[in-house]
Amino acid sequence: MIYTYEECLKLYGSDYQIRKQITLKNLYQIEPGIYSDKEYETRVAIIMKKYPFSVFTLNSAFYYQGLTDTIPEKFYIETDKDAAKITDKAIKQLFDNNSSLELGVEVKKYNGDEIRIFSKERLLIELIRHRTKLSFDYYKEIIGNYRKIVSELDFQAIEEYAEQLPKTNLVMNIIRMEIL
User: Fold this and answer.
1) pLDDT at 84
2) Separation CA 179–CA 125 (nearest Å)
3) Is 106 in contact with 119 (CB distance < 8 Å)?
4) Which of 15, 75, 105, 157 is at a distance of 20 to 30 A from 164, taking alpha carbons?
C-alpha cells in the first residue's frame, strides 16, 4: 500500500519511527513524501496517490479503457483549473476550465491499482473535442474501436455530458456522423 508522509506520521508516530521502519525494510521511500510497504510500486499508483483529485484522460485513458493499444509516452491527467501546475516531466496535465472534472469519472482497477478515469462515454466527447490535437491515424483507430462497442455505450449519458461541456452541437453532430 502507498502512503503519504502525513499518513506515515499517523501510522508510526514520528519521523524517527518512519526512518526505523525504512531501515527494517518494513517501509520503503518511493520518492520524497511517498512511501510504500512494497519495494516497488507502479507509476500509475504513485500518480493517483500524489494527485488524488486528478483524472486520467485522453491518451492514457484511451489505453487504460482498451480503446487503443498505443502506450502513451506520458501520463495524461486532468485537474481542476485551480490546481497547482505539475512539474513532473512524465505527466501531461490538462486543466478543467468548465467545473466538469467529476463528470463521467469512474474508479477502475488497472493492473491491480484503483485509478480515477473518465468513462468511455466521457472519453468519446473528449476525443472529439481534442481531435485536432491528435494524429489522424490515432483518432481514426479510436473512432473505429468506438464503432465496435457502440451497443455498449450509454447514449443518454453521452448527451448529458455533451450538454454540460463546450461545443455541444459540434460534438453531437460528429458522434452521429462517425459513430452511429
Assistant:
1) 94
2) 12
3) yes
4) 75
3-state secondary structure of 162: helix
Report helix, strand or coil for 20: helix
Q: How many CB atoms lie within 10 A of CB 43?
A: 13
Taking all residues of the chain, what is their mean pLDDT, rounded to a whole number?
95
Phi, psi values for residue 91, rounded to 5°: -115, 130
Overall residue count recorded for the chain in this entry: 180
Residue 117: pLDDT band with limits 50, 70, 90: very high
30-61 pLDDT tens trace: 999 999 999 999 999 999 999 999 999 999 99
CB contact at 8 A, 71 and 63: yes
Measured CA distances, 179 to 133, 143, 166 (Å): 19, 7, 19
CB 56 within 8 A of CB 26: no
d(CA 49, CA 92): 17
DSSP states of 71-113 as a string?
A: PPSSEEEEEETTSPPP--TTEEEEEESSS-TTTTEEEEEETTE
Cell match 518494513: residue?
A: 26
pLDDT value of position 168: 87
The grid cell for 120 is: 468511455
Which residues make Cβ contacts (< 8 Å) with residue 50, sequence separation at least 6?
Answer: 33, 34
